[in-house]
Amino acid sequence: MDNFQSSIIYITATILSLLFCGFILHLLTKKFLSKHGKKRYHPIGGTIFNQLINFHRLHHYMTDLASKYKTYRLISPFRNEIYTSDPVNVEYILKTNFDNYGKGWYNYSILKDLLGEGIFTVDGDKWREQRKLSSHEFSTRVLRDFSSVVFRKNAVKFAHILSEAVKSNEIVDIQDLFMKATLDSIFKVAFGVELDSMCGSNEEGKKFIHVFDDASAMTLWRYVDILWKIKRSLNIGSEAKLKEYLRTIDAFVYKLIQRKTEQMSKPEADLSLQWKKEDILSRFLQIAGTDPKYLRDIILNFIIAGKDTTAATLSWFVYVLCKYPHVQEKVAQEIKEATAEKEDGTDITNFAANVSQDALEKMQYLHAALTETLRLYPAVPVDAKICFSDDTLPDGFSVNKGDMVSYQPYAMGRMKFIWGDDAEEYKPERWLDGDGFFRPDNPFKFTAFQAGPRICLGKEFAYRQMKIFSAVLLRYFVFKLSDDKKTVNYRTMINLHIDGGLHVRVFHR
């Protein structure tokens, strides 16, 4: 989205929202106090237009509030918005009283244009159906073996691109490369398609990436822009742009579905069923039929789960390795020892082939370093649920039917009452026991993968991809920030991308 256009849209929306919210808030405060005087409600941290004003630093703003209140609420014209960083409340929302907290109509209405009826937007039977099918796929050895081959292949391709950058002394936007690499991986694993966006041979795929990222940012903007429905009906501003992006996204995805459907309908496809078992889309086509809209929604949900989350985490991982070079060297040494490599001149392709499951399991410090990255830079920084009926959280405060209740992985990772006085310090050792083995923590305090019935199905899938890429890249390269004085910040969108990319210099190890 063009920066100038964005500024105009944001300023206009802010002014209109402030005027509207000021009037509505005055009325609601009176109504709220008279109606709910006997119930206990969480302290007020601010209003929804405080979020609007702080949108560019939204997670900093919410972390500041979380440091004052474990749980607080923001007043909006239509509902309370409760935000919690209390692990006890999080466990109650995600597990103990799971059925009372879901996506609900509010989240669905915001997300449906981009993600449709996918697993991240629906509740009830639709969610259970997709969860069951997806769970089966992620638990199969076929997918594990197939995906590992794909990850190794793309990691090697990534390494060759970096080698060329070293030769030409070129500064690399490594986040952009990770986005392309993970997109290539998820398209091959989930849909059986060679996108090859990393090497730039697929211009259509390259355009899809940028449009999808911008559509994601505009979708998140709806949470703080109370006028988005009016803009959509009038087809103006950010909503007009989003509509344009969605047309590009849909055209790309429907073409993909058509190709796969045609491939599976060919008579020769019946001669061998093995290829059908390798990609997830084929599984859905066999079981769920060929409704293009349903498949489109599934695909986009897989993309946002399989591309953005892993690529963003790997980008932040390289960032912290640049900030903590001793960690970078320690990870590199462990990789060398875990793969039992004897010669420094081992070919990249041969080395990648030897990054086996056994070797990955020996990389305990790497696993801890990636987990510590996710603690401070969770791929999904905040996750919202809707309360379906009046309730009382474990902290004793009330929640009303229709309230939005969110837990905050980004803020939680920085809370001293959860992680101690060194909460804001990057410290992989906090995840290791006395013998140097990885020690998982309470999933309701480390919420990067959610927890309870909706816990991320692709958790092990993501770790495997991140560890394979890390092993190949850190074995052969040293990373340094191109400008260590430049502030690195996030872009406020559904996933925690680095704003403007991560520009690094790469050196042979």
Overall SS class: alpha+beta
Q: Measured on Cα atoms, how large is the radius of gyration? A: 23 Å
Number of helices: 20
Fraction of residues in helices? 55-70%
Question: What proportion strand?
Answer: 5-15%
Largest sheet: 6 strands, mixed
Q: Stretches where pLDDT falls below 50 for ≥5 residues?
A: 1-6, 8-13, 22-27, 271-275
Mean pLDDT level: 85
Biggest sheet: strand arrangement: 1-2-3-9-6-4
General shape: globular
Distance between the termini: 38 Å
Q: How many beta-strand elements? A: 13
Q: Would you write up a description of this structure?
A:
It holds the Pfam family p450. Belongs to the cytochrome P450 family. The chain crosses the membrane at residues 6-29. This is Cytochrome P450 704C1-like. InterPro entries: Cyt_P450, Cyt_P450_E_grp-I, Cyt_P450_sf. The chain contains 20 helices and 13 strands. With 509 residues, the protein is of the alpha+beta class. The strands form four sheets. It has a six-stranded mixed beta sheet with strand order 1-2-3-9-6-4, with helices on both faces.
Short structural summary:
Pfam families: p450. The protein has 509 residues and is α+β, with helices and mostly antiparallel strands. Helix content is 58%, strand content 9%.
Name the descriptors.
509 residues, alpha+beta, six-stranded mixed beta sheet, 20 helices, 13 strands, 9% strand, disordered N terminus, metal-binding, transmembrane
